[in-house]
Amino acid sequence: MQNKRIESDSMGTIEVPTSHYWGAQTQRSLVNFPIGVDRYKLSPVLIESLGILKQAAAKANRDLKQIPEDVADLIIAAADEVIKGQHNAEFPLVIFQTGSGTQSNMNSNEVISNRAIEIAGGEMGSKTPVHPNDHVNRGQSSNDTFPTAMHIAVALAAQRQLFPNVTRLRNELATLSERYSDLVKTGRTHLQDATPITLGQEIGAWVAQIDFSLANLEQQLQGIYDLAIGGTAVGTGLNAHPEFGDKTAAYIAEHTGMPFKSADNKFFALSAHDALVNFSAALRTLAGALYKMANDVRWLASGPRCGIGEIHIPENEPGSSIMPGKVNPTQAEALTMVCVQVFGNDAAVAFAGSQGHFQLNVYKPVMVHNVLESMQLLGDACAAFTEHCAIGITPDREKIAYFLDQNLMLVTALNRHIGYDKAAAIAKLAHQKGLNLKEAALELGYVTAEEYDAWINPLTMTQADAQ
What we know:
β3 and β4 form a beta hairpin. 58% of the residues lie in helices and 8% in strands. It folds into three domains: 4-138, Fumarase C, Chain B, domain 1; 144-229 and 265-397, Fumarase C, Chain A, domain 2 (Up-down Bundle); 407-461, Fumarase/aspartase (C-terminal domain) (Ribonucleotide Reductase Protein R1, domain 1), CATH 1.10.40. By secondary structure, the protein is mainly α. It has helices at 24-32, 44-63, 69-83, 102-119, 132-136, 142-179, 199-224, 244-256, 266-271, 274-300, 330-353, 364-388, 397-406, 415-418, 420-433, 437-444, 449-455, 458-461; strands at 4-9, 12-17, 184-189, 192-198, 226-227, 261-262, 311-312, 356-357, 360-361, 394-395. The chain is elongated. α4 packs across α6 (142-179). The strands form five sheets. Strands 1-2 form a two-stranded antiparallel sheet. Strands 3-4 form a two-stranded antiparallel ribbon.
C-alpha cells in the first residue's frame, strides 16, 4: 500500500499509484480500455488544449463568482503546468474509450485537482481544497469540454506545424517555377506526348494546387473556431452560468491569439462535428495535391537512363539490397504513402462524423485523433520532402531538349495555317517513317522550310497568344 493511495468516485474506491496525479476515473479507464499502443494515446497538443480549456474555465468561474478566488488561482497554476507539457505522462489513456471523451476530461480534472491540492499543501486524493468535479469541471460536461479541446488542438496544430511546413514546400516549388520559367519541355496528357510547356509552368501548377488546398484549409478553420463550451450535457447549458461559455471562449482566444468563440448553437456543437469533418476533407484535398506532385516528380525523375529522366532529384540512400548503384525516389514514395494514410484517416473521420445520435456524437476521440495524425504526417512529410528532395531538383536540359525535338505534337502549331487534317497527316507520316516533323512536312509538301521554321516555335507555343 506504500505505493498506492485510495481514491473514490461514484462507483466506489480504487487504488491509484501514489506517484501519479490521476485519480479514480482515470485508473478505471486504464483497466477497462487496454486497447492499442502508444500511438493511440492523446497527443501532446490535445493534452495542452485540455489545460488551456481548464485554465480558461477557472478564470471565467472566478470572474462569475462560481468558485472561490483562491481555488481558481490553484486551478490556474496547475493547469498552466499542463499547458507547458510538464504532466504529459499523467495522461495515459487511449482514444478508444467512451465516445464523448469523458475519461480524458476526468483525467484532466483529476490531474489538475491533485496537483492544485499538492500546491496548496494538501493530501492528494482528498479532493480538498480543489474538487475535480465541483471546481475544475465547474459549469462543464465532458460533452462540451472534450469537443472544445478538440477544436483548440486542431487549430494549434494547423498554425504551428501544418501551415508552416506546407508553405515552405510551396515556396521552394515557387522558386523552382520562376527559375525554370523559360525552359521549354514536352507536355504530356494521357501519359502521351502533348504540346510543349515550360518546366516552370509544370511546377507552377503544383504551386497553384497547394495554394488552393491551403486556402481551403484556412476557410475550413473558421468553423473550428466555434467552440461547444457552454453547452454542458445536451446543449442547454444546464448547471453553467449564462455567461460562462462566452467568457471561457474569450479567455481561450486571449491565450491562443485565435478568434475562438462559443458556438451560437450548442446543440449542433455537441451532436455533430461537421467543422471537423470539413477540415479533414480539406486535409484530404491537400493530400491529393501532394500525391499528384510527388508522383509527377518521380515520373519526371525516372531512369536514370531508361525512364523519362527530365529532372534530377537528390540521391539520399542506396535503393536496393541486390542491385548495386540503384537509387530510388524515396522522398516521393514516403510522401505518397503519407497521403494514402491521410485518405484512410479522412474516411474514418467522415464515418465517425455521421454517427451523431440525438444530442451527442459519440465518436469524438477517434475523430480528433485522425485529424491530428493527418496534420502531423502531412507537416512532417512536407518538411522532409522540402529538405531532402525539392531543394535539390534540377533539370536535365539535354534530355528535355531530346524529347522536345522528338515530340510529334509540335505539329499542333500548324493547325491554323494548313488545317487539322494536313497537320495530322504530317504527324502520322513522321511516326511511321521515323522522320522528324520538318522532314515529314517537307516530304508532303504542305509547308516550305521557311514556313515551318516560322510557325513551329516551341517557346511561343507555351504562351496563350501563340501565333
